[in-house]
Each structure stands twice: as C-alpha cells, then as structure tokens.
Amino acid sequence: MTVSALPTAPALSISDFVSHWQGHRALTRRVIAAFPEEALFTFSVGGMRPFGVQATEIHLLSAMTVQAMDTGQWPEPDWAAGPATQAELLREWDALDERLSQVGAGTDPAFFSALHTLPWGNMPGWVATIYAVDNEIHHRAQGYVYLRALGVEPPAFYER
Amino acid sequence: MTVSALPTAPALSISDFVSHWQGHRALTRRVIAAFPEEALFTFSVGGMRPFGVQATEIHLLSAMTVQAMDTGQWPEPDWAAGPATQAELLREWDALDERLSQVGAGTDPAFFSALHTLPWGNMPGWVATIYAVDNEIHHRAQGYVYLRALGVEPPAFYER
Questions:
Q1: Contact between A6 and B109 using a beta-carbon 8 Å cutoff
Q2: Keywords for this entry (chains A, B) (predicted)?
Q3: What ipTM, to 2 d.p.?
Q4: Contact A1 B149 (CB under 8 A)
C-alpha cells in the first residue's frame, strides 16, 4: 500500500466487517433464545416495546441491509410482516445468517463509500450498513435488562 | 485501487471509524447529561449497575483505546479511579473527545490489522478498537431503559 492510499486505509476491511456482524448476530440469537417463550413478545420495562418486537425489527432491518450489500437496493420492508413467534424468528435469523455468509464478503468495495438512498435519507454505504449493527447492539442491550428483570442470566456480552 | 487490493478494501476507513465513534460519543454524552444528577450513580433496574458506573467504565475503556491508537500500548486503567460525579464525568468525556480528535485520524493503518496484547487477551487492533464502541452502545442502551423507567425521554438513538 502506498502512502497516498493511507487516508482511505481500512480500519475494518469488508471481511472484518462481515465477521464483526456475524459475531453480533450469533450473540443476539442467544439472547432471543434465552427469553422464556411467553415473555418474548409480552414482557417490557418502562413502557418500552417487548424484546420480540425489537428483535423482529432488527431482523427486518438486517435483511434489508444484507439485500442492499448484495444488490445495492434498499427497498423498505413491511415492518408489520416480520416473524411473530420465537421459533419463527430463530428460523428466519438462521436463514439470513446463511445469506450473509454467502454474499457478505463479496460486497462491491464501492458499496461502502458510495452514497445510497434509503427510505430515511441519503448516506454513505458504510453509515447505512454499520447502523444496522449498532441498532442491533442497542436493542439487544435492552433485552439484557429485560432478562435481568425476569431473573434470567443473559449470555456474556464479550462472547461472539 | 487495483483488483489485487480488494480483499483488504475498507468497509470503514480510519476516518470513517473515527467519525463513527465520535457520533456515538456525542450521543452517549447526551444520555449521561439526561440523567437526573441524583439518579445517575444510584438508580438501576434488575439489580444491574447504575448508569453512572457503566458510563465511567465506558470512559476508562475509551481512554485506554484512544491511548492505544496513539501509542500502540494498552495499559489497564485503574477501574476504581474514574470520575464519580456527573460533572466530572462530562468534563473527562470532553477532554477525551479532544484527544480523539487530535490523534484518531492519524492512527497508524497497521494498528488495525496487527495483533495486540490486551489485559484480557490477544486480538487484532480492529477487534479491540470496535469493542470499545460496541461496549459503549451496549451499556448506553441500558441507560435508555433506566431513563424510561425514570420517566425521562432519552435522546433519539439515530441522532449522532
């Protein structure tokens, strides 16, 4: 790599980013599975949404993002059409894992620096993509509080 | 960029990563400031630590990480020696923002791919560095639940 290339030198390469996300997805799957089935879509703290509803939103946003990495297109999902049971959520989670494994590392490098049009605005691909991961970490952490409040020990955060 | 460079093509460049973290730091600062002073180091849900204690840990880990980006060294902080009031926490937060602005973009590109020795194990620089951001998002989200439980509207997650 020449000195002139340094300003765009990677902090995270594409394969780093994909394995970063895969590690978080594995952890989030363990958090979904840790919920008592009857609490997943009903229990909440402070008037917030139940974790099952948050996890369904994470899933739909993630599926939208993987689709964009593959095709460059960001069609808005039907937010009301996601999985509605723990088993269905885990099944769709695994299917999306499979798709991310297939297409993630082959994402066009230009995807990350190019400007994209999303339903909620224009932004560089890296901003849109890492937002999906940030949103997952954010809502999953709220699931940690719910689990603690339910008396369930959550999975270790540092294990991916 | 030649085709042979593609396997290490950036998902996030160094300057992308720094601005990503700065955006999260600005949001976390707003969350710290949103807490009623008397609740910051005392209120909790589900037997978890108060948000002030979590935010102090975020600060110490972030300071350790910025120091490593600057020097390549990861000396473990004294976890008991962090700021202990809201005002002190915000002051130290601002000072670290200043340091990150000064040194972040100049981080040696080799830092991110090289293997580093941290007090809790050996890992590539990008893993160690983004862990600090993930840890911040994770604990800040727990602060969101505390704020909701306290009847305080938290700052918008998507604003950075």
A1: yes
A2: Metal-binding
A3: 0.92
A4: no
